Each structure stands twice: as structure tokens, then as C-alpha cells.
Amino acid sequence: MRFSPLPRFALFIVGIFLTLAGLVPLPYVVLQPGGGADVLEKMITIEGAPTYPTSGKLLLVTVLATSPGSPIFGANVLYSWAKADSIVLPRDVVYPPEQSSQQINAVNKADMDGSQSAATVSAFSYLDKIGTPVDPRKVKVKISVKNTGGPSGGLIFALAVVARLTPNDFLTGRTIAGTGTIDAQGVIGPIGGIDEKLIAAKRSGATVFLAPTSNCDDVHHIPSGLTVYSVETLTEAISVLKDAQTSISHCTWQRNR
User: Fold this and answer.
1) CATH number for 132
2) Taking every annotated instance into account, which residue ranges of this chain make up the domain Lon proteolytic (predicted)?
3) Can you give the pLDDT at residue 88?
């Protein structure tokens, strides 16, 4: 009995097609957990006022995202979909479609600079309220962050300024991570990539995580061993760190797998 070679040839063609499809650039972005860096260690310097030592760490956590100009191939998409800690999103969901890579980087840098300024102002305002005023004309705060953009470090920056300018150590030896935008009044706003940042915090050794209340619905799981508090203001965040029993339960989350 003779068999037609067509099925074998067809499989060969399909194999070639799938191979080529895996090498075709696709309009997607891959997001995955980044790292955590202690803002208090090297990132922040304060001049013009007494500063105080701290016994813990304040981690700035990040999300790794492929750049808007980086080609993402079909094989990359399939691999990222298979990884539990990565997500794949359409490029236009993550980056404005009308902006170039250079424009997006410029916006992210401006957002980072703005978050540092707002964090400093909100920290000074908090210190004034608790009876430890600082003169903004004399006190200079410098925060140096490399290879990171966006406004989501505002909360951690503000906490770092307060921690350095107050003698009462509210970190008490803990490794604390957090995220959230902040304005000059100390109001904390939502950010993107909350799940990825929780994973990054856990991997970096954090035991406490401060999250914006407005991100409650975006949290799908919490890594084991990481206690997460939702906060709306800088004052709330510091109150939680001083006494966890005073934490305000704005929302509840499902403990992770």
C-alpha cells in the first residue's frame, strides 16, 4: 500500500509557518516583577538639617517592562504567557500609541522628578504637623534614582524623608516596601503593576507592603509572608508603621496560592 506524501509535506509547511510566526514582531509588551532597592541606603541625601539613623529598609520596588521600541516576537509572547509572574498586554494599553520611545522616556523622567518634589513637600508638611518643622529654604533633599521612571515611588520617597528627619525610628528593623503616587498634600494615588510589585517586594526580603487603597481591586494575590496595608495618605502610612493595630482596613485581599 502506498501513502500519499501530502500529509507529511503539509506538516512540514505548517512547521515552517509556525517557526516563522514565532519570529514575527508583535505589538505587545511583557511585564514582570523587577527588584527592590533601599532608598535610605544611597538614594537620598539631606542637607541643612539634622538627620537620624534608621534600623530598617524602605524599598522602592519596580516592574520590568519591555520598551515600546523593543520587538516582541511570538515565541516571547508564548514564553511569557507560560510564566506565572509575567503578563502580556497590548502595547497601546501600556504606552500611549502616539508617542515615541524618546517621548515616553521623557514623560517618565518628568513624572519621577515630580514625584520626588511632591514627596519632599508632603514630608515637610507632615513634619510641621507633628511639631518638627523644617525650613524648606535651608533644607535640601536630593533623591537619585537610576534607570527608573514614573511617579509610583512618591510614597516611599516621602517616608524616607520623614524617617531621616525624625529621631523616632518607625521602621524598627523591618524591611518595608510600598508604592503609590503622592501629591503635595500627602494624598496617595494608584499605580500600575501592583501584583508584580508585591512579588518584587517579597523577593527583595520585604515583610510589610504599603499599597494605595485605590489599587484594592487590582490586587489578585499576596505572597505568603508579606503583610499588606492599604493607605490613603502619608499620615496613615506612618501611623500603620508605628502601630499596625491602628491600620485602617479599606479593603481585603485574597491570600495567594
Assistant:
1) 3.30.230.10
2) 149-237
3) 80
Longest dimension (CA), the chain: 96
- Helix then strand count (H, E) for the chain reads 7, 12
Closest CA to 40 of 160, 170, 207, 194: 160
| Closest by CA position to 157, among listed 232, 32, 35, 45 | 45
Q: Is residue 255 part of a domain?
A: no
pLDDT computed for residue 79 by the predictor? 65
Residue 145 phi, psi (nearest 5): -125, 125
Task: Give whole-number Cα distances, 209 to 55, 181, 245, in Å.
Answer: 17, 15, 15
**Rounded CA gap, 255 and 257, in Å?**
7
pTM of the full structure: 0.84
Instruction: Select from 193, 199, 234 the least CA-distant residue to 215.
Output: 193
H or E element, residue 177: strand 175-178
pLDDT below 50 — which residues of the chain? 1-3, 14, 16-18, 20-21, 247, 254-257
Does the CA dihedral 76-77-80-81 come out positive or negative?
Answer: negative
74 vs 218: CA distance, rounded Å: 27
User: β-pairing, 175-178 with 181-182?
Assistant: unpaired
Determine which helix (DSSP H) or strand (DSSP E) holds 19, and give its type and residue range: helix 6-22
Q: What per-residue confidence (pLDDT) applies to 99?
A: 80
- Nearest Cα neighbor of 85 from 209, 208, 226, 195 is 195
Number of domains in the chain: 1
pLDDT of residue 233: 97
**pLDDT of the residue at 246:** 59
The answer as to whether 16 is a domain residue is no
Helix (H, G, I), strand (E, B) or coil at 180: coil
Residue 131 · residue 17 · CB < 8 Å: no
